[in-house]
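Hey, can you fold this one?
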Amino acid sequence: MPHLSIRIDFDDEGRLGPGKVALLEGIAREGSISAAGRAMNMSYKRAWELVADINESFAEPLVAAQTGGKAGGGAALTPRGEELVRHYRAIERKALSATASHLKALQAISRNRRRK
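Sure. Predicted structure:
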């Protein structure tokens, strides 16, 4: 079945799509940028670059990171970051609901449809 992928372009301020949102959700779940990146098979450097890009693209930081030390570092979503994830997932659900019949029709005419 085809799937719908939502990417939101914010003029010149950046983009938000499924990869960045998944990284944010991973940070919320793992409590760490590097652990969230590892869970997505992403390098430490790439995960940190994406978080920097995300934080620079919005008026307020979406991820708050704490440096290491004896207890180690960590990261968490800010309230604004949690809000962004909720809005993105709501947009995704509504778009999928609105397009489900069209996606099914596209599957029926695609070359890769499953034969019974």
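The longest helix spans residues 79-109. Let me know if you want another pass with a different chain boundary.
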